[in-house]
Design a protein that fits this description.
The structure is a single chain. The protein has 424 residues and is mainly α. The chain has 2 domains: 6-137, no CATH class; 142-419, no CATH class. 77% of the residues lie in helices and 0% in strands. The protein has helices at 12-31, 43-80, 94-108, 113-128, 130-140, 143-162, 176-200, 205-231, 236-261, 263-293, 308-332, 334-345, 349-361, 371-391, 395-419. It is elongated and about 75 Å long.
Length: 424
Amino acid sequence: MNFIPLIDQPILPYVIALAIGLLIGTERERRKGTGPNRSAMGIRTFATVSLLGAVSLTLGDSMLLAVMALAIAGLATITFRPLHQDQEQDPGLTTELALLLTLLLGGLSMREPILASGLAVILTILMTARSFLHRFVGTILSDTELKDALILATAALVLLPLAPDQYLGPFSALNPRTIWKIVILIMSISSIGYISLRLMGPRIGLPITGLTSGFVSSAATIGSMGERAANDSNLLWGAVAGAVLSTIATVIQMTVVLETTDQSTLFELWLPLVCAGITATVYGVFFTIIALRQKTSNAVNLGQLFSLKTALLFAMTISVVMLLAAALQQSLGKEGVIVVAAIAGFADTHSAAVAVASLVATGKLTAHDAVLPILTSMTTNSITKIILATLSGNIRFISAIIPGLVLVMIAAWLGAAFTLGYFN
């Protein structure tokens, strides 16, 4: 005897439609209130409307579903709104709009049951989180944060799709979409760090600040932490932890940047990056534990979600390095790429990595040959970090930071030696 799986049964979409109505209706039932002013729409109404959407799409296709939507909207306006006329506050349109969406989700379940179910869950979560969302937007979210969020949304959802996805310019070195993806990446990572710091609070202060700031510039973070340690000895170990953790951010961001630009380059560099990341993590966790045991003031300046100026400057740097790398690669071969990567690494190792990976993506360089230039840029960038740490003038800070930076680079080069076959 052959058994037909349940998912192939014609009844399943109707079951999903009923489940959607019951899920959304349960949330509305709990909020409909009591007494003469209670809402007329609860669990039975939403379950019925969801099934109505499913049946409408089955019997009359999209046209009948549209007619039912107009009918439900009219009934909601005529029948339900007068119940709130005596209330001093505007009851809003959430329930009525949710009822219409439930009808449409019931219809959608006949064609895309998984999508309809997911949207129903999202709608229920939004309605359940009403108090939190109102409080977050009204009292927690600042005007500056809202402005930054809108800038990020515009960059990702409006400008990115408009950016050409092809290599242009001299030597065919510049891919506008790749460059803009990196800009969005910088802003997004900075925003995540900001949100994490705000949600977790300043209890671990400088270590969290160092980790999040490292996604923007690890070298600048180390310089800033050195200044904090020099100005207040009580912040020494927190500043050390923040400086070391910024190096972890460098490795993580390098991984994401390479994955965005050229995955074959990341595949060649995964072992050096893992070795460097593990070393930096162990070293950073050690000093973080010391910092957490130190009694200090945990006041932390949150700053902004991200710096648009920094992100755009980073994009310009990437563009210049990409042009130089392409030009020297054409004239000097891979040796020229190493020279450019080394020079660029003193300022920023990620821009050098993007430039080298872009050469791989365009077939001008092999992924295997990209290992040395990128690790060279990481090494010269570590020299910059050592110089900035030394400029702080705090001997204890310097003696704690420099060994960590050296160990991280030794680990990265050992990983590269295995990758390049030097130990075979």
